[in-house]
Amino acid sequence: MIVVKNYSSAPAPEYGYVWGSPKVSQVLKGRDLEYTKILLLLDNLDLSSNKLVGKIPEELCVLSALRGLNLSHNHLSGNIPINIEELKSLESLDLSNNKLVGAIPQSMANLMSLNKLDLSYNNLSGKIPTGPQLQTLDDPNIYAGNDELCGTPLPKKCFGDDDRRKNAHEDDDDYKESRIERIWFYCVVTLGYAAGLWGVIGSLVFNRIWRDAFFCFTENTMELILVTVEVKIGRLKKSIMKWTN
Asked: Coil, strand or helix: which one is 139?
């Protein structure tokens, strides 16, 4: 059991919060443990079934060494603190049976050590955030009693999920279909090029008359081109000499 006592004014400048110099006593295995100046080293906090009211204080998230937090069976209201991701060491979080409202903050997906979670029986709403660690917590009972929650692992789908899934499936089908068409196109072009090339080369290889005619035509064409070029160059030289004189 943990009891919170004696709050007086004192700053905690390294975090930018004004704490109340709280003294926390914990009875653990028959030993009375007190946390005063080393409150930030507290690793387990159980305030369940204490009739607590109001919002969960954001300053609670400064307890960076906290591994277990149990605020269940109280009358807490408001939103889950958005800076809950600062509890980097948190392994167990129980906020069940309260009056919490609003969406589950996406920052909760950054709690990489979290292996036990209970948010049941509140008034939470919106889509359940996704993340590598949260995906492993796939028990729907974690979110039971929150009628406005949707998304995995609950059977209730969020608005637009089916459309996004359908669009993704259609895009995938279109991509596969387009890829098959491109493959067929390249195959047809390659086969056509090979057939045309072999049709020309094969006829020259196996038909001597065609081969002689082809080389004769090529030779005559080259000579014609060379003669034409030489005539053009000669005329150009004459024009230049006439212009310079």
From this structure: coil
Tell me how far apart the terminal alpha carbons of the chain are, to the nearest angstrom: 117
Say whether pLDDT at 42 is over 60: yes
In this structure, are residues 34 and 58 in contact, taking their beta carbons and an 8 Å threshold? Answer: no
What pTM was estimated for this model as a whole?
0.54
Q: Which residues does residue 44 pair with via DSSP β-bridges, in sequence order?
A: 68
Instruction: Give the tens place of pLDDT for each residue, 211-231.
Output: 777 778 888 888 888 888 888
Do 76 and 52 contact (CB within 8 A), yes or no? Answer: yes
pLDDT in tens, 104-127: 999 998 999 999 999 999 999 999
Nearest-5° angle of CA 63, CA 68, CA 73?
105
The partner residues of 11 in beta bridges, in order of sequence, read: 18
Residue 180 parent element (H or E): helix 161-206
Q: 92: which strand partners?
A: 68, 116
Question: Which two structure tokens, joined as six digits, stand for 152?
Answer: 């995995």
Domains of the chain: 43-156 (3.80.10.10), 162-244 (no CATH)
pLDDT tens sequence across 51-70: 899 999 988 888 888 889 99
What is the C-alpha to C-alpha distance for residues 161 and 165, in angstroms, rounded to an integer? Answer: 6
CB atoms within 10 A of CB 98: 25
Amino acid at 84: I
